[in-house]
Amino acid sequence: MDGVYLSWMISALALGVMLLPVFKPPWFTITIPTFVDFVRRYWIHITIVFMIYNAKDFLDQVDRILMASAGLDMTPWIYAIEGNMVLWVQQTFENDALTTFLTHFYVAGFMFICYVSIFYFAYFDDRWMADRITLSIAWVYLLAVPFYLFFNVRVTGDTIPEMETLAYSLTPEINDWFRRIDPFSNAMPSLHIGVPFAVWLCITRFDEDKRWNRYRHLVLAYVLLTSFSIVYLGIHWFLDIIGGMLVAVAAVGLAERTAGPWWKVFDERTINSRLVTVLTNPGKAVSIVNGKIKATIQQYKTPTSRETGVLVVVILILITSIITWDLTHQSLPAGGVEAPQGVEAVDGWMVTMDDRVEGALLVVHDLSINSASAIDVVQPIMNLDSPYAISDTLLVMSNETTLMAVDITTPEIIALSVEVDSPEQIIIANTPSGPAIIMLKDGEISGFNIEGEQLFMPTPEIHNITMIRTAGSEIAYVTNDNPTTVYIARIGTLGALQIEINAQAAPEQDLMLESWGTPVNMSNVKITNLVFNYDYVAATVNVTATDRLVLFDRDSGNQWLASDAKYPVKDPSLGHGILAWSVKDHLNPTNPQQKYLDGEIYFTDLESNITETLTSDEIDQWSPRVLENHLVYFEMDDEGIVTIEIHSWEPELKLYSNLVMQVGTLAAILLVFINAYQRQLEVKRAKTQ
User: Fold this and answer.
1) What is the pTM of this model?
2) What angle do CA 32, 37, 38 make, to 5 degrees?
C-alpha cells in the first residue's frame, strides 16, 4: 500500500475514534468491549459500505474501456454551459499552503466522512439511522453508475486551458496514486458531494429527537468546504456539485422506501436465526422460500403499478448491461494464429509472424470484413527474425537470400522476387512513381522499385544507420553517432531534416526513479524505437532507468513526454490522428505488484490531446498498431496463450445484443404505458374511497 494512502487512511480512522466523545449521545458510555460488539451487531451494514467502496475500482476500469470504445464524452457540453468559472476560483485563491491542505482534506476527509457516517450510528446503536444512512450511501453509488458509464465528464484541470489539477500534481507519489484509481472522466456527479449531502439529508429527515444535531452541523460544514475544494483543486465543475446533490436527494428517498423490505431480510438481529433454520431444518427453509416464490409469482400474475414499475427497471438494467458488456468487449481474437511473434498492419490488413511447429509463417487477415479466417500467402522460407513490411496491399518479405513481394489481393502470385544478402530491416515507401522497397544492411540503406530497378537513396555517405522508418516518400533514420537525433529525408533528394529528441523529465520524476534504484543517466541516452508521419515524430528513448515516449510536433517544433516518465514504454504506433503505445503503468521495481507487471495499451487523440486507456487488467498486452478503423495488439492470457486482438474504433453491437435490445425496448414501451395507466387508476380509486 502506498505510504501516502496509508497515511490518509490512518488519519481518517484515528480522527473518527478521537471525535467519538464529541458526538456521542449524553447517555452513552464509551467502552472498549463496545468496539468489538458493534461489528457483531452491524456486520451487514459494514459489509455493504465495504463492497461499495471496492466496486468503484471495478467500475472505473469498465469506464476507461467504455470511453476508449465509445467516446461518450459530455465534457464539451458542460464546458459550454459553465465556461471558465472554475478557473476564476482557482486563480483567485491559489496558494501553495491552501493547495497542500485541501489535497489531503479531499482524500482523507472523504474517507473520514464515509467511515464515521456508518461507524458512529452503529457504535452508538442507533439502528434507525444506521439502516437509512447505509442504504442512502449505497443508493448514491448505484444512481451514479449510469452517469459514470454513459455520461462521461472529464475533470476541469484536464479540460480547461490554464487550469491545473492541483491535487493530482502535488507530488509525484500523489499524482501516481490518483492516476491509478481515477480515470479522470467521472466528474459527474461528484460523490464527494453526493455521499455527505445524503448523510446530512438523512439526519435532517430521520433524526426526530435531534440527538445527532452536532454531527449534522459537522457534515454540512464538510459539504461546504468540499464544494470549494473540488472546484479549487481543478477536479470538478459546479454542475458536478448540483449532480451530486440531486443524486443524494433521490438516494435518501429511495432509502426510505427500501429500508423496510431490505432490513426485513438482512437485519443482523434476525438473519442468524434464519441461517440456523437453513442448517438445522433445511426442509422448513425450503418450504418458506417456495412459499415466498409462489406469493411473488401470484403477485406478478395480477400486477399493480409497483410490479410493472419493477419490470421496467429490470428491462432497463438488462439493456444497459448488454450495451456495457458489448462496448467493453469490442476486441476479437484473430484466428489462424498459433504463436504470434510480430505484427505489421495497414488500413484493412494485418500481417502476423507466427511461430509454428513447421517453422515461421506469415499469416494475413482482412480486417475490412471482420473475419477471423486467415489468408494463405505465397512466401519464402523464413525464420522468426526475417524482416517483412506491408503498405496498402503490397507485402514484402525476405530471408537471407531472397526478397519476395506479393499483392495480397492475389496472394498466390509473386509480384517480385530478387536476390538479397541478409537484410536487417525492410520498409516500403510510397513515392509519386510507385512503391519503393528500402532495405537496411550493415548500417547502409539501399532501395529499388517494384520492377526491381535500383533507386537513388538520400544517404550515400552514411554507413552507421541503426534503424529506418518510412511515411509516404519520406525516410526517417537514426545513426550510431547521434543516437538521439532523428533524420528525415525524401527519396530522390539529398539532405535531411534533423530533429533532436529530448527525453528530459521533471526533476521530481527523476528523483523517484533514483529512489527506486533505477537512476536516470542522461549521458547515455538513445532512441530505441521510432514512428513518424507528416505531422509528428514519436520516439521511445532509453534513459537507462526506463524508456520514455517523446512526441515531436513537426509543425510547431514543440516536443513533450506523451506518457508518464517513470514507467517503461514500448511499441509506439502513429497514424490517423492517434498515437498508441504499450506501457507497464504504475510499476515500482522496488515493490513490484503482480497487477502492474503486465503491459497496458494506451492511446492519445492528438487533436484533442486526450489520452485513453484501452486495457486495464492483469493480462499482458503489447505491440499496438493504429489503423483507420481498428487498433490491433498482442494479448497473452493467464495460461500463456498469445492472441492478436482487433479493436474497432466504431462501436459494433453484436447481433444477439441488437435482438435483445430491440425486444427489450418494445417491451419497455408497453410496460411504461401499462404502468402509467395503472397509476392513474390507482390514484382515482384512492380518491373515491
Assistant:
1) 0.78
2) 100
